[in-house]
Amino acid sequence: KPVVVWFRHDLRLDDHPAFVAAAATGSPVICVYILDKTTYLESSIGGAYQWWLHDALASLNAELEELGGYLLTFEGRADEILPEIVRQSGAASVFAHHRVLDKERQQDQHISSLLSEMGVGFQLDWGTTLRHPCDVLTKERRSYKVYTAFWKVLRSLGAEEPVDVPEHVQFSAHGDDLLKDQRLNAANLRSEKPDWAAGFRASWRVDSHAAHQALDVFLDDHCSEYATARDHMAEEGTSRLSAYLASGLISPRRVWSEVHKRNEKGKGAEVFASEIGWREFAHYTLFHTPSLPYESITEKFRALPWRKSAHDLKAWQRGKTGVPIVDAAMRQLWQTGWMHNRARMIVGSFLTKHLLINWQEGEAWFRDTLVDYDAASNAMNWQWVSGTGIDAAPFFRVFNPTLQAEKFDPDGVYLKRWVPELSKLSGKVLFEPWKASEATLRAAGVTLGKNYPQPIVDLPEGRDRALSAFKAL
Ligand code: FAD
After folding, report:
1. Which amino acid residue places its CA nearest to atom 42 of ligand 1?
2. Which among 256, 349, 372, 373 is the best mutation to test ligand 1's pocket, defined by most ligand atoms within 8 Å of the CB?
3. What residues bind FAD, as annotated (predicted)?
4. Where are the domains of the chain?
């Protein structure tokens, strides 16, 4: 009897405990992926992540082919498709990794009981996090709410060891006949009319080799400077591993183990490991607090009088707020599917504080436009940046976009790359063109309201409005 490996957010063979466990049975293996939109937030998969998925699935298939197997891909409800695959193939058991979003966990429970009624096993391992989320608990067996306390324990425990690709795997030869009418048409994942993804293609190579290469380049060339370079938006100071981690083309445990093998003592390695720790904290928090993507963690913030302004929201989404560093960041996101972490914090604070628009609008826009979209990291970071209850981040901390730009993009290199209309401005007015004299703007070819927008909000007024809304609670 064959066994099934069900790939989900783990589209790789390296460090894949479920694949290893299936191979160890000695039975022929059937490898499947099911695109099930009902398990995504709002039952839709983001456009950018969908673009990424197309090649990520091809990468997994290529890895399997090297071992003599292949990937079967389906589209539809996994709780219908998977039991049907098992029924038709006569499989004895299904192997997969745990997921943390509530909808996915509920589905796994449901599928587990369906399979058990059929006398089929469903074995779930932890393969997308460093550890089991219940390994790090307080003395009272509660989950940590503050990152530093969580990190202290995780740091001392370390990660589980990654597992290698098994040497011998026997694949089932009968997969081809299974559920032919529910196969995923991969071409639908990438529509080229209109061809909105040219910037994506120029920015990313989507396969597991590229993931390992990105890690190598980072560890060889950037890790030692990471502690300071990571905040500078114009520099290639970070690893750009997030999308590979989100789709599982590389595992966090492999990243963790390589960092510790090669850069054990450096400050950069320590800071980098703690960023992998933030990813872990996001998954951990979503596991222990399933409402994370749906409501503000601190109850009183659920009553915040958020503004509803379709005009301001659209200006923010399209990078047309008139606040240059915000616009640069939002255009980087739109064109490449990725945004620098410092920039994410700036635009998040601007949306939720200066514009007083609900963090959930930002969460939804990022969900649609990020190639590294991850349900846990996105929701946690939006709640962190808006100060609505994650970690110790207070609501009253408002990032000043001008000061942030002056500090983390002092020469405006990042800004001018994405907002070329302002490329002839320099000095402080590059960050605040509304303060420039008529003559300066004219000399730089800038006409506010014509070829670059007037700011949609007065920054001090926006800040005060947010703080009074907060104080009124
Ligand atoms: P590096 O600096 O090289 O960090 C290495 C890895 O650590 C990253 O690849 C990522 O997996 C992890 N990491 C780093 N910072 C964080 C963080 N703050 N939270 C969680 N993990 C982190 N990251 C996502 O992967 N998916 C998201 O959907 C996402 N949404 C975000 C939304 C907002 C509002 C903010 C402020 C941050 C968000 N992040 C998200 C976190 C972070 O911005 C990205 O992980 C990071 O910019 C990716 O670039 P990198 O791989 O070069 O990071």
Report:
1. 341
2. 372
3. 226, 238-242, 272, 372-374
4. 1-127, 129-163+207-290, 299-471
